[in-house]
## 1
Amino acid sequence: MKLLINGIQSNLRFSSAHVIPGHESCGFIHGHSYFVDVEIEGERAGEFDFVVDFKDVKKYTKAICDELDHRLLIPVYNKLIDFKDFDKKSDSIFDLKKEGSVHFKIDGKGYSIPAEDCIFLPLPYSSAEELSKFFAETLARKLSETYDNLEYVSVCVNEGIGQGAMYRKDL
Ligand SMILES: [Zn+2]
């Protein structure tokens, strides 16, 4: 059986700034009011014959939304983002969080931003495509700690109404 959670109606939303390095129009810092739809398929099981408890799905998804909300999303492994004092190959992303400010260049354009204003993602892009994969994998990992009856977790990250990317993580 399949469960659906509507992000707008269930308040699974976040508003963030991002940039797609090298893109003609999205290469400038801009923002979106995102919302996140979730679809989960699995066998009904347990005391209540649920596929999964809606409350758990909403709690875990909301926790990811809250991490990203009101931050600049930085895809640390983007090829065009050149960090000062940070080596993508050897340094940990956790080190970036500890900095007072982060300094980087994109195509020669320099940025200096307080680290607390940013969320550093282990991704090549902060596109809807990469964010949906990030959400689906994180949510699937979290649900797998307590559920063993799920077939897949699919997440659609919408960049406002009318356009979104969906990623399915099979379990
Ligand atoms: Zn955008």
## 2
Amino acid sequence: MLKYVRQKDDIIIVGCGNSTVGMNLYDANYRSIVSIDISPVAIKQMKELNKVKRPDLVFQQMDATKLEYNNEKFSVVIDKGTFDEFMTDSKEETVALVTKYIEEIKSVLKSNGRYICISLLQEHILKTVITNLSQSCAIRIIRCHDVESKALDQNESSIPVFMVVATKFSKLHAPVNLLTVEIDKAILDVAKSYFDFIEDDKSKVRIADGIDYITQAS
Ligand SMILES: C[S@@+](CC[C@H](N)C(=O)[O-])C[C@H]1O[C@@H](n2cnc3c(N)ncnc32)[C@H](O)[C@@H]1O
């Protein structure tokens, strides 16, 4: 994760619980870190645990779907397991809550800032991430092999864990007109049926051989 977070970043950890992520960053000389959680118990414990050794760590009890921060305050939002906890099913009210959560994240995030989400990324979560973030962010998904091997080393069962890094487009870059050339129509069908991809004036797809297409276009 450190590859995507710099020491000068203004970081918020949403749904921190009792996790050591903020403490580990602090010990690696990151200083601007705010951690929030809806649980007053977790926040009280974290304040108590860190008040002497890590006095600059800030913990606040707050609802992540109603963040009380200014727009574009943070350059990094870290979410470890919180999205997964929100999105236990695909019911209408759950999707509405998660959509509100993502809107809050996008508004507190600066342009070019990163939303880093550690998740088990089941299909309904992946779909929601893509649907809600792909218009305003560049999305990269990385499988966390080190987390999985650590669990195996400790004789624990290991399930795939992923890190989604969504980088918010700067105002200069969004939105663009996009032409995609794809050789296999089946890929387009998957994008439409599984990821709600819609062809429109801004996003068009040609089914063709990419090299032929570029040769003819040049
Ligand atoms: C699965 S736990 C993950 C905790 C921690 N990030 C970790 O990695 O151990 C999800 C956390 O999200 C918090 N949470 C749930 N709903 C929340 C909300 N609306 N706003 C803020 N935090 C919330 C829970 O209290 C819990 O601490």
